[in-house]
C-alpha cells in the first residue's frame, strides 16, 4: 500500500468512524465513507454531525469533494487499498455483547475483499474477534492473511468532546495477524496518530483495549464509592481528590459523578466478563465495579428524593430540573447516560422532571418525551440536579435559587448544595 495518497474505506461513520475518516483525509488519503444509514450521510453532508471544533473545520473543508466520498454502496469497498471497520459494539439489556452490527460489517468487508487490501478492525470486542469475524471467513474464500491480504486489529482511542485528546496526538496500538499484517496496518494509521505501538498479535491489541476501559470503569466506581465515604465523614470529595492529585506518582485522579455513560465504560468490560463467564478465571473486581456503576444512577435518584424530603417537598408533583443530560461534558451524546435512569426513576416516583442541556435538543425516556427548558431561570424548581456541566455554560443562576443536588461534585460554592 502507498504510504500517502492511498484510498481508504471507513465502514461506519459514527462517533469513531467520522473523525477517523477526517484524520485519514487530512493525511492526504482519499476516503470512501460507507454507512448504511442515509440519514447519517445527510447529517454529515449538511455539516450537522457532533464533532470537536477541529474536526468540524476538517469536515467543512472536505465535504462534497471527490476525495471524500460518502456512500451507502458496499461495492465501493473493492476500490479501496485499505478498509477500516468502525461500527458500534454495545451490550443488550442483559449485558450480553450485541455483535449484530459488527458481524454484518465484517461480513460485508469479507465479501468485498480483494487481494492486496489491508483490513483493520477498530471496534472494541472480545479477544479473538478479528480471527473469528475476518480471518476465518476470508480463509473460506481462499484469502490468507500475509499471503493474499493483510488483517489487523487497531482499537480506536477517540475521546469525544476533548479537543486536547485529538487522534493525531494519541498513540495507536496495532496488532496484526502476523508481523507483516501489523506493519501494513501501521502504515495506514501512522499519519493519523501520535505514534504506533506494534504488539505481537491481534489478540494482544484486543485485550489492550479491554484493559484500558476496564481500568477506567474500576476507577470510576472507586471514585464514586470514595465520594460517598467522604460525604459520610463530612468532607468535600472534590477537595480531597484535588489534594491527592498533587502527588506526582502513584496516583491518578478519577472524578466521581452520577454514573458512567457512553459507548465504552458501561459496555466494554462486559465483553471480557462475557467471554470468561463459566471458565476457570473470574474477574471479581471488574464484576463488582460494573455492578456498582449500574447501581449509581439509582442511588442518585434516591438521593434526589431524600433531598426533596429534607426541604419539606413531597415527591409527587415535585418539579425537578436535570442540569445536563449528555453522558459527558462537551458532547451531545446521551447513549447509556445515567440521566436516562435518573429521569425514569424520578418520574416513576411521581416527580415532574424536565432538563436543560444546550447540546441535547430532544430527549425521550421510557418512550415519553422529556420537557426541555432553555431558560431555567424563568421557572421555579423544587430541586436542580446537576448532572453534566458543559464548557462555557452559565451557572450563575444556580446560587440562591432552588436546592441543588450536585452529582458532579464541582459546585462547592453554592449555598443550598447537597451531594450524593
Short description:
This protein is an alpha/beta fold and 420 residues long. It has helices at 17-26, 38-45, 53-62, 100-112, 129-140, 179-189, 202-232, 237-244, 268-276, 284-310, 338-348; strands spanning 7-11, 30-34, 68-71, 82-85, 118-121, 150-153, 172-176, 196-199, 319-323, 352-356, 364-365, 368-369, 383-386, 404-406, 417-419.
Q: Keyphrases for this structure?
A:
5-stranded parallel sheet, globular, 14% strand, 2 domains, NAD binding, Rossmann fold, 8-stranded mixed sheet, 420 residues, alpha/beta, 11 helices
Structural class by helix and strand composition: alpha/beta
N-to-C terminal Cα separation, in Å? 54 Å
Averaged pLDDT, please? 94
Radius of gyration: 23 Å
- From N to C, what is the helix and strand string? EHEHHEEHEHEEHEHHHHEHEEEEEE
Strand content: 5-15%
Q: Find the count of extended strands (DSSP E, 2+ residues).
A: 15
Poorly predicted runs of 5 or more residues = none
CATH topology of the largest domain: Rossmann fold
Quick one: CATH class of the largest domain? Alpha Beta
CATH superfamily of the largest domain: NAD(P)-binding Rossmann-like Domain
Helix content: 25-40%
What is the number of helices? 11
Q: How many distinct domains?
A: 2
Pfam families: UDPG_MGDP_dh, UDPG_MGDP_dh_C, UDPG_MGDP_dh_N
InterPro entries: 6-PGluconate_DH-like_C_sf, NAD(P)-bd_dom_sf, UDP-Glc/GDP-Man, UDP-Glc/GDP-Man_DH_C, UDP-Glc/GDP-Man_DH_C_sf, UDP-Glc/GDP-Man_DH_dimer, UDP-Glc/GDP-Man_DH_N, UDP_ManNAc/GlcNAc_DH
Keywords: NAD, Oxidoreductase
Protein name: Nucleotide sugar dehydrogenase
Amino acid at each position: 500500500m502507498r504510504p500517502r495518497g492511498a484510498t481508504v474505506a471507513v465502514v461506519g461513520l459514527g462517533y469513531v468512524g467520522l473523525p477517523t475518516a477526517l484524520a485519514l483525509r487530512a493525511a492526504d488519503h482519499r476516503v470512501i465513507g460507507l454507512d448504511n444509514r442515509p440519514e447519517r450521510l445527510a447529517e454529515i453532508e449538511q455539516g450537522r454531525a457532533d464533532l470537536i471544533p477541529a474536526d468540524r473545520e476538517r469536515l467543512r473543508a472536505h465535504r462534497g469533494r471527490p476525495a471524500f466520498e460518502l456512500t451507502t454502496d458496499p461495492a465501493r469497498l473493492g476500490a479501496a487499498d485499505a478498509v477500516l471497520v468502525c461500527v458500534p459494539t454495545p451490550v443488550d439489556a442483559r449485558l450480553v455483547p450485541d455483535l449484530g452490527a459488527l458481524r454484518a460489517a465484517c461480513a460485508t468487508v469479507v465479501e468485498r475483499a480483494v487481494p492486496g487490501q489491508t483490513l483493520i478492525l477498530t471496534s472494541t470486542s472480545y479477544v479473538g474477534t478479528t480471527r473469528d469475524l475476518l480471518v476465518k471467513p476470508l480463509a473460506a474464500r481462499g484469502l490468507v492473511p500475509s499471503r493474499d491480504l493483510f488483517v489487523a486489529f487497531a482499537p480506536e482511542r477517540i475521546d469525544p468532546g476533548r479537543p486536547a485528546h485529538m487522534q493525531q496526538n494519541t498513540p495507536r496500538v496495532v496488532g496484526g495477524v502476523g508481523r507483516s499484517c501489523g506493519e501494513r496496518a501501521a502504515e495506514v494509521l501512522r499519519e493519523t496518530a501520535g505514534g504506533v505501538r506494534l504488539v505481537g498479535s491481534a489478540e494482544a491489541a484486543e485485550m489492550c483495549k479491554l484493559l484500558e476501559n476496564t481500568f477506567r470503569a474500576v476507577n470510576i466506581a472507586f471514585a464514586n464509592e470514595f465520594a460517598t465515604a467522604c460525604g459520610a465523614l463530612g468532607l468535600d470529595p472534590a477537595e480531597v481528590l484535588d489534594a491527592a492529585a498533587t502527588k506526582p506518582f502513584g496516583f491518578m485522579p478519577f472524578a466521581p459523578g452520577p454514573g458512567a455513560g457512553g459507548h465504552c465504560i458501561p459496555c466494554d468490560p462486559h465483553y471480557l466478563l462475557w467471554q470468561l463467564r463459566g471458565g476457570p478465571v473470574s474477574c471479581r473486581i471488574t464484576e463488582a465495579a460494573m455492578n456498582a456503576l449500574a447501581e449509581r444512577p439509582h442511588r442518585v435518584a434516591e438521593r434526589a428524593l431524600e433531598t426533596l424530603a429534607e426541604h419539606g417537598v413531597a415527591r409527587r408533583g415535585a418539579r425537578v430540573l436535570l442540569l445536563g443530560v449528555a453522558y459527558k461534558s462537551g458532547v451531545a451524546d446521551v447513549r447509556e447516560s445515567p440521566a436516562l435512569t435518573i429521569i425514569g426513576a424520578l418520574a416513576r416516583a411521581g416527580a415532574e422532571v424536565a432538563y436543560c442541556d444546550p447540546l441535547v435538543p430532544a430527549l425521550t425516556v421510557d418512550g415519553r418525551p422529556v420537557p426541555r427548558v432553555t431558560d431555567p431561570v424563568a421557572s421555579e424548581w423544587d430541586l436542580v440536579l446537576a448532572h453534566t456541566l458543559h464548557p462555557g455554560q452559565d451557572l450563575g443562576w444556580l446560587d440562591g435559587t432552588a436546592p441543588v443536588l450536585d452529582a458532579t461534585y464541582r459546585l462547592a460554592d453554592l449555598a443550598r448544595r447537597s451531594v450524593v
